[in-house]
Structures are given as structure tokens and as C-alpha cells.
Amino acid sequence: MNESPMNESSSREKEEMEEGNKEPPAPRAKSAVQTKKNILPADADLDRLVHDGSPETMVAVAGDARLTEDLALALLNRRDLPREALEALTKNGSLAKQKKVRLAVVMHPRTPRHVSVPTIRHLYTFELMQVALLPSVPPDVKRAAEEVLIGRLASISSGERSTLAKQSSGRVAASLLLDKEERIMLAALSNPQMTEMWIVKALKAETGTQLLTPAVARHQKWSYRNDVKAALLTNNYTPPARVLQLAAELPINLIKDVLRSGRVSSNVKNCLLAVLEKRAIRG
């Protein structure tokens, strides 16, 4: 049975009255960090507050103009430091330009990438080396430090390059394998972080291997690696007498790979083909 127009009207009025009595939903509360700028009172004890557990307090301390370098470093020693606090430190006037503070910000595991990567460009040579070697630093931040460091190699002193060759990460040391100074190249070759992959890549460089190739060919560690031997066969600076030894030492499959690469000289090619023929006869 259909309702009359009068009943429909009264029903609609009742619904509107009930809706009018409902309270609107409360707005979602934002965190203290989002809703207000954290400002500490004039008599705030910063020595005590750097150890406070409240995230809002840590952000306020990080952005306070009275914060000293020592207190900033104490704050940066905290692994529970919020990202907002790390951002506030990088905007805290002259404090953000302090050498130790910048390094500690970059090395902190919770520093956002948009903060740490631009800051890397302002670090000194051996600070970059330290960042690249520290296990706790994220891989992409390490890579950024290495790239900045490699970009500076042409402009830094011979002494600095020598230190980097001995102590830096494998990627940076690999960039010094083609250094024009033999002592620096040899130091890079003996770097503890050096790997076979970097040696092979350097040997395949189109230029600059005059010093490297003979050194690798007689090196007590690298000259015994098969992939290194194969790379030496493709390099024109490998001593001819060593070519014969390498060809005799390499497995047949690697000799064939070297021939297929098309990077060997005619003399080396003939030598390798002769070795393959001799082994076939023996087989």
C-alpha cells in the first residue's frame, strides 16, 4: 500500500531532524610535529633535552639556534633520532656547516636520502672515503660518496691519491689502477677491497694500461686467476713471453672465449690456435 504525500513529507522531516542532531565527525588529529612548530623556552636545558625520548623534543632541540656542535653530535649519536630532527639539523644555521656535524648527518642510518646525498658533495676527501667504507651506511649513499670521490681524483694531490689507493673502497681503488704514477697503481692493486672483477675491467680499458698490464702479469695474487689471464691475453701490453705461459695455463673453454672476443692480436691468435691444436693432438 502506497504512503500518502503527507506521510512521506512527515517522514522526510523526521529524518532531517535526526540528521541535524548528529555531531559532525571530529577532524583527524595530526602529530605534534606536523601541527605546530616546536619552539623551546628561553630557559630550556639543552644538555638534558638532547637525551629526551620525545620525538617532538628531539626535533625542537635539533632546530634550536642555541645548539652547540658538541650537543649536536651527542644528538646524532642517538639511533632513535627522527627523520624530522635530522632535517632540522641541516637547516640549523651555521651549525649545519660544521664539518663533524655534516659527516655525522650523512653517516646516520635514518637520514633521508634527499638530505644525505646533497650533503655528500660538501664533504672532504677522506670523509668521503670513510662514508664509502662504513658498513652501516646505506649502499646508495656509499655509491654517491664513491662517485663524488672518483670525480675529484684528477684534482687532488698525489699523496691523497696514494692514500686512497691503499685504503679506499674497491670501486675507488679501481679508478686508480690506471693512474699515471706507478706507485699509486701498485698500491691500488694491493688494496684489501680490490676484486678480480675490477682488475679484469681495468685490463680491458682502451687506453692507460701501460703500467698496469705488466704489473698484473707478474703479480703474486692476480696473475693466477683464470679470468685475469684471459684479460691479459686481450691486452697489447702483456709481455710476449708471458702470453705463451698464459696460453699454456688456460683451460680450453677460456681460450676459445678469448678467440671469440675478437680482441686479440694476430700473433696472440696464432699462439692460441697452436695451443688448441697441440691439445687436440694430445687428447
Give the SSE layout:
Blueprint: H1 5-21, H2 32-35, H3 46-49, H4 55-63, H5 69-76, H6 83-90, H7 99-107, H8 113-120, H9 125-133, H10 139-152, H11 158-167, H12 170-175, H13 182-189, H14 196-203, H15 212-217, H16 226-233, H17 240-249, H18 252-261, H19 266-282
Structure explained in plain terms:
- The chain has 283 residues and is mainly alpha-helical.
- It folds into three domains: 45-122, no CATH class; 128-194, no CATH class; 207-283, no CATH class.
- 61% of the residues lie in helices and 0% in strands.
- The protein contains 19 helices and no strands.
Low-pLDDT sequence parts: 26-36
The main sheet comes to: none
Domain count: the total is 3
Overall body shape: elongated
Helix-strand makeup class: mainly alpha
SSE arrangement, N to C: HHHHHHHHHHHHHHHHHHH
Secondary structure: helix percent: 55-70%
List keywords for this structure.
283 residues; mainly alpha; 3 domains
Quick recap of the structure?
With 283 residues, the chain is an all-alpha fold. The protein contains 19 helices and no strands.
